[in-house]
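Quick one before lunch.
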Amino acid sequence: MARGPSCVDPLMPGCYIAIVSRLSRKAPDLHTLNLFLSEAQIQEGVERLAGQVQADYEGRPLLVVGVLRGAFVFMADLVRRLRLSLTVDFVRLASYGASTTSSGRVRLIHGVRSPLRGRAVLVVEDIVDTGLTTSFLLSYLQERGAASVRICALLDKPACRRVQVSLDYVGFTAPDRFLVGYGLDFDQRYRELPAVYALEDGS
Ligand code: IMP
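Model of the inosinic acid complex:
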Protein backbone atom coordinates (compact mmCIF):
# COMPACT_ATOMS: atom_id res chain seq x y z
CA MET A 1 0.00 0.00 0.00
CA ALA A 2 1.43 3.38 -0.99
CA ARG A 3 1.98 5.74 1.86
CA GLY A 4 2.79 9.41 1.82
CA PRO A 5 6.15 10.62 2.99
CA SER A 6 6.63 12.67 6.09
CA CYS A 7 7.80 16.20 5.34
CA VAL A 8 10.57 17.71 7.39
CA ASP A 9 11.57 21.31 7.79
CA PRO A 10 13.80 22.60 5.02
CA LEU A 11 17.50 22.81 5.64
CA MET A 12 18.17 24.17 9.06
CA PRO A 13 20.52 27.12 8.89
CA GLY A 14 23.06 27.57 11.60
CA CYS A 15 24.08 23.92 11.87
CA TYR A 16 27.30 24.01 9.94
CA ILE A 17 30.29 21.74 10.08
CA ALA A 18 33.25 22.86 8.05
CA ILE A 19 35.25 19.98 6.73
CA VAL A 20 38.39 20.35 4.72
CA SER A 21 38.44 17.53 2.21
CA ARG A 22 41.11 16.40 -0.19
CA LEU A 23 39.15 15.37 -3.24
CA SER A 24 41.99 16.46 -5.43
CA ARG A 25 45.67 16.08 -4.68
CA LYS A 26 46.33 19.56 -6.01
CA ALA A 27 44.18 21.64 -3.72
CA PRO A 28 41.98 20.91 -0.71
CA ASP A 29 38.30 21.72 -1.18
CA LEU A 30 36.17 23.10 1.56
CA HIS A 31 32.82 21.42 2.01
CA THR A 32 30.24 22.82 4.32
CA LEU A 33 27.83 20.23 5.60
CA ASN A 34 24.50 21.71 6.52
CA LEU A 35 22.40 19.50 8.81
CA PHE A 36 19.27 18.18 7.14
CA LEU A 37 18.21 15.26 9.37
CA SER A 38 19.47 14.60 12.88
CA GLU A 39 20.15 11.11 14.18
CA ALA A 40 16.94 11.27 16.22
CA GLN A 41 14.85 12.32 13.21
CA ILE A 42 16.33 9.52 11.12
CA GLN A 43 15.67 6.91 13.80
CA GLU A 44 12.06 8.08 14.19
CA GLY A 45 11.65 7.77 10.43
CA VAL A 46 13.16 4.29 10.34
CA GLU A 47 10.89 3.20 13.20
CA ARG A 48 7.84 4.48 11.33
CA LEU A 49 8.86 2.72 8.11
CA ALA A 50 9.58 -0.53 9.94
CA GLY A 51 6.11 -0.41 11.47
CA GLN A 52 4.53 -0.03 8.03
CA VAL A 53 6.59 -2.84 6.49
CA GLN A 54 5.93 -5.10 9.48
CA ALA A 55 2.17 -4.59 9.19
CA ASP A 56 2.14 -5.23 5.43
CA TYR A 57 4.30 -8.38 5.43
CA GLU A 58 3.23 -10.01 8.72
CA GLY A 59 3.20 -13.80 8.25
CA ARG A 60 4.76 -13.71 4.76
CA PRO A 61 8.34 -14.58 3.85
CA LEU A 62 10.19 -11.55 2.53
CA LEU A 63 13.37 -10.99 0.56
CA VAL A 64 14.88 -7.61 1.42
CA VAL A 65 17.20 -6.32 -1.32
CA GLY A 66 19.53 -3.47 -0.41
CA VAL A 67 21.00 -1.16 -3.04
CA LEU A 68 24.72 -0.82 -2.42
CA ARG A 69 26.44 1.05 -1.34
CA GLY A 70 24.28 3.91 -0.09
CA ALA A 71 21.55 1.86 1.60
CA PHE A 72 23.79 -0.24 3.84
CA VAL A 73 23.30 1.81 7.02
CA PHE A 74 19.56 2.36 6.52
CA MET A 75 18.99 -1.30 5.67
CA ALA A 76 20.88 -2.47 8.78
CA ASP A 77 18.72 -0.24 10.98
CA LEU A 78 15.50 -1.18 9.19
CA VAL A 79 15.85 -4.99 9.22
CA ARG A 80 16.80 -4.98 12.90
CA ARG A 81 13.39 -3.51 13.65
CA LEU A 82 11.49 -6.14 11.63
CA ARG A 83 10.10 -9.27 13.24
CA LEU A 84 9.43 -11.11 10.00
CA SER A 85 10.65 -14.24 8.26
CA LEU A 86 13.13 -12.45 6.03
CA THR A 87 16.33 -12.98 4.10
CA VAL A 88 18.59 -10.29 2.71
CA ASP A 89 20.48 -9.80 -0.52
CA PHE A 90 22.11 -6.88 -2.31
CA VAL A 91 22.51 -5.33 -5.70
CA ARG A 92 25.16 -2.87 -6.65
CA LEU A 93 24.39 -0.28 -9.28
CA ALA A 94 26.24 2.79 -10.44
CA SER A 95 25.14 6.00 -12.04
CA TYR A 96 27.00 8.83 -10.30
CA GLY A 97 30.77 8.29 -10.02
CA ALA A 98 32.61 11.27 -8.53
CA SER A 99 29.83 13.70 -9.34
CA THR A 100 26.71 15.15 -7.75
CA THR A 101 24.55 14.56 -10.81
CA SER A 102 23.39 11.29 -12.32
CA SER A 103 25.08 10.21 -15.54
CA GLY A 104 21.62 9.09 -16.65
CA ARG A 105 22.97 5.60 -17.31
CA VAL A 106 22.47 2.86 -14.71
CA ARG A 107 24.96 0.00 -14.72
CA LEU A 108 24.49 -3.28 -12.85
CA ILE A 109 27.74 -4.08 -11.08
CA HIS A 110 26.50 -6.92 -8.85
CA GLY A 111 23.13 -8.67 -9.14
CA VAL A 112 20.98 -10.54 -6.61
CA ARG A 113 22.22 -14.06 -5.87
CA SER A 114 19.00 -15.31 -4.19
CA PRO A 115 16.30 -17.04 -6.25
CA LEU A 116 13.65 -14.45 -7.15
CA ARG A 117 10.88 -16.48 -8.76
CA GLY A 118 7.66 -16.18 -6.77
CA ARG A 119 9.26 -14.10 -4.01
CA ALA A 120 7.90 -11.01 -2.29
CA VAL A 121 10.73 -8.50 -2.60
CA LEU A 122 11.27 -5.27 -0.71
CA VAL A 123 13.90 -3.01 -2.27
CA VAL A 124 15.68 -0.77 0.23
CA GLU A 125 17.13 2.42 -1.25
CA ASP A 126 18.93 5.29 0.39
CA ILE A 127 17.54 8.01 -1.88
CA VAL A 128 15.46 8.24 -5.03
CA ASP A 129 16.53 11.11 -7.23
CA THR A 130 15.97 10.82 -11.01
CA GLY A 131 14.17 7.50 -10.45
CA LEU A 132 16.37 5.78 -13.03
CA THR A 133 17.92 3.37 -10.52
CA THR A 134 14.53 2.39 -9.08
CA SER A 135 13.03 1.94 -12.52
CA PHE A 136 15.99 -0.20 -13.64
CA LEU A 137 15.72 -2.31 -10.51
CA LEU A 138 11.97 -2.85 -10.82
CA SER A 139 12.43 -4.22 -14.34
CA TYR A 140 15.42 -6.32 -13.27
CA LEU A 141 13.49 -7.97 -10.40
CA GLN A 142 10.23 -8.39 -12.33
CA GLU A 143 11.99 -9.95 -15.33
CA ARG A 144 13.50 -12.52 -12.98
CA GLY A 145 10.08 -13.59 -11.73
CA ALA A 146 9.61 -11.79 -8.41
CA ALA A 147 5.95 -12.15 -7.37
CA SER A 148 5.83 -8.62 -5.97
CA VAL A 149 8.30 -5.76 -5.67
CA ARG A 150 7.89 -2.82 -3.31
CA ILE A 151 10.24 0.07 -2.82
CA CYS A 152 11.28 1.49 0.54
CA ALA A 153 13.38 4.66 0.32
CA LEU A 154 14.72 6.65 3.23
CA LEU A 155 14.77 9.82 1.15
CA ASP A 156 12.84 11.02 -1.86
CA LYS A 157 13.91 13.96 -4.03
CA PRO A 158 10.77 14.31 -6.20
CA ALA A 159 11.96 17.55 -7.85
CA CYS A 160 14.70 15.61 -9.68
CA ARG A 161 12.56 12.89 -11.26
CA ARG A 162 13.29 11.93 -14.85
CA VAL A 163 11.12 8.80 -14.86
CA GLN A 164 7.93 8.21 -12.92
CA VAL A 165 8.31 5.60 -10.18
CA SER A 166 5.92 4.62 -7.44
CA LEU A 167 7.49 4.45 -3.98
CA ASP A 168 5.69 2.31 -1.40
CA TYR A 169 7.46 3.51 1.75
CA VAL A 170 9.21 6.87 2.03
CA GLY A 171 11.00 8.19 5.10
CA PHE A 172 11.49 11.85 4.21
CA THR A 173 11.01 14.20 1.30
CA ALA A 174 14.22 16.03 0.47
CA PRO A 175 14.90 19.23 -1.47
CA ASP A 176 17.01 19.31 -4.61
CA ARG A 177 20.31 19.33 -2.72
CA PHE A 178 23.11 16.79 -2.70
CA LEU A 179 22.91 14.91 0.61
CA VAL A 180 25.59 12.96 2.45
CA GLY A 181 25.85 10.90 5.64
CA TYR A 182 24.01 7.85 7.02
CA GLY A 183 25.34 5.79 4.10
CA LEU A 184 25.09 8.52 1.45
CA ASP A 185 28.38 9.57 -0.07
CA PHE A 186 30.03 12.16 -2.19
CA ASP A 187 32.89 10.46 -4.04
CA GLN A 188 32.88 7.71 -1.35
CA ARG A 189 33.17 10.20 1.52
CA TYR A 190 30.87 10.96 4.46
CA ARG A 191 29.02 7.60 4.55
CA GLU A 192 29.99 7.13 8.20
CA LEU A 193 28.25 10.28 9.46
CA PRO A 194 25.29 9.36 11.69
CA ALA A 195 23.10 12.24 10.45
CA VAL A 196 22.22 13.50 6.96
CA TYR A 197 23.71 16.75 5.66
CA ALA A 198 23.39 18.85 2.52
CA LEU A 199 26.76 19.24 0.90
CA GLU A 200 27.61 22.78 -0.04
CA ASP A 201 30.62 23.43 -2.20
CA GLY A 202 32.82 26.11 -0.71
CA SER A 203 35.68 27.97 -2.25
P1 IMP B 1 18.63 8.00 -9.14
O1 IMP B 1 18.88 6.84 -10.09
O2 IMP B 1 18.98 9.30 -9.80
O3 IMP B 1 17.26 7.99 -8.54
O4 IMP B 1 19.68 7.93 -8.00
C1 IMP B 1 19.75 6.88 -7.13
C2 IMP B 1 21.10 6.76 -6.52
O5 IMP B 1 21.91 7.92 -6.75
C3 IMP B 1 20.96 6.66 -5.04
O6 IMP B 1 20.79 5.32 -4.66
C4 IMP B 1 22.27 7.26 -4.55
O7 IMP B 1 23.27 6.28 -4.53
C5 IMP B 1 22.61 8.30 -5.59
N1 IMP B 1 22.16 9.63 -5.15
C6 IMP B 1 21.13 10.35 -5.64
N2 IMP B 1 21.02 11.52 -4.98
C7 IMP B 1 22.00 11.52 -4.06
C8 IMP B 1 22.39 12.45 -3.03
O8 IMP B 1 21.80 13.52 -2.83
N3 IMP B 1 23.45 12.07 -2.27
C9 IMP B 1 24.12 10.91 -2.43
N4 IMP B 1 23.77 10.02 -3.36
C10 IMP B 1 22.73 10.31 -4.17
